[in-house]
Write a structure and sequence with these properties.
Length: 356
């Protein structure tokens, strides 16, 4: 079972002390806008502002959870950081190197050190290749594993690492269950011995019982290989279990960041409070009653986001006023390693969420 209680393995007060001072990943003012073209002579008429100016650091050995509603830009962020999508603006640094300035040779080296686990394990696997062929191809492309027999042995060792059998190397993707396919995706990501992995909704397509197995596998692999994760998810219980820090996204922007213990105990932003109020508690009779916050209306279009605070059309807080429609908030310090983007920031989050 997944422990949805306090994050005990990474105490919040130790998060910043246990990593190298220089971040492995540094993102500054990252933007990714997709053009909308139309007309008889197609021309750009507008832009979908999927990611609209976000910044964060990610330290070696750490897990940063990136959460938010569907369509807020989480997956686009992960793919843009890896340059699977080209950024519109902003800076991306990996071990101090400018990712956006990399040429083909440097980008190939980046592919070795930075990998991704895709949300849909079946769609990310080639149906015409056996699992062994896929793993061996990755090793061949990156000139790893030596000769053909060595690559074959390495592929089977990878399958054993993720809890599969050597004989599975001769099977095709359709012969596996969803959980096994996700393990294959993890094996493929590990094959090049990366430092950093983007986990894009790694268990959302799996049954609950299988989710626990994959989550425990990811945690064990992180400890064994000193991996750094960007965990993209909308399951807040999963994020609490696996993450050291959390960044909350809304409409292409980060609205709050904090160590996991601090964020779940004392959320500051009205949007974060609403998200956490919807998380089921494993033993509600033994905890304080939590007030459910219902957000009204739909998420605004990223083509034409509202002026001022992007959350103001749905904000439930009684202090919301006309200033929220004019002033665009930026991330401001809100305590120890805690930042929030809200011009009406209050520090009474816990009392607002919980009542006797």
């Amino acid at each position: 079972m997944i422990d949805t209680g306090p994050h005990s393995s990474h105490p919040a007060q130790l998060v910043t002390e246990s990593y190298d001072p220089a971040p492995l990943i540094r993102v500054k003012n990252l933007k990714k806008h997709f053009p909308i073209r139309g007309g008889f002579l197609p021309r750009t008429r507008a832009f979908v502002k999927a990611v609209d100016g976000i910044s964060f650091d990610l330290f070696r050995g750490e897990t940063l959870g990136l959460v938010g509603e569907s369509g807020c830009g989480k997956s686009t962020t992960g793919r843009t950081v890896l340059r699977l999508l080209e950024a519109t603006e902003g800076e991306i640094y990996f071990s101090g190197e400018d990712v956006r300035a990399m040429g083909p040779a440097e980008l190939r080296q980046l592919r070795r050190r930075a990998q991704i686990i895709f949300q849909d394990p079946f769609a990310s696997l080639n149906p015409r290749m056996t699992i062994g062929q896929m793993l061996e191809e990755v090793l061949r492309v990156h000139r790893l594993g030596g000769d053909r027999m060595s690559r074959r042995l390495r592929a089977r060792t990878l399958l054993d690492t993720v809890g599969l059998l050597a004989k599975h190397a001769d099977r095709y993707p359709h012969e596996f269950s969803g959980g096994q396919r996700q393990r294959i995706g993890i094996a493929r990501a590990l094959s090049v011995e990366p430092d950093f992995i983007v986990c894009d909704e790694p268990v959302s397509a799996l049954d609950v019982s299988v989710q626990a197995q994959v989550i425990n596998l990811l945690s064990d692999l992180q400890d064994e290989f000193d991996l750094t994760y960007l965990l993209i998810a909308h399951d807040l219980a999963l994020v609490e279990h696996m993450s050291d820090r959390v960044a909350v996204m809304y409409l292409g922007r980060i609205v709050e960041t904090a160590p996991v213990g601090s964020l779940y105990a004392d959320p500051k932003h009205p949007y974060t409070r609403a998200l956490l109020s919807a998380v089921p508690r494993p033993e509600p009779q033994r905890t304080k009653r939590r007030q459910r916050i219902m957000l009204e209306g739909d998420v605004p279009s990223p083509v034409d986001p509202p002026p001022g605070c992007p959350f103001h059309p749905r904000c439930w807080h009684p202090l919301k006023d006309e200033a929220c429609t004019r002033m665009t908030p930026i991330l401001e310090p809100a305590g120890d390693n805690h930042t929030v983007a809200c011009i009406k920031f209050l520090d009474d989050s816990a009392s607002t969420l919980d009542s006797s």
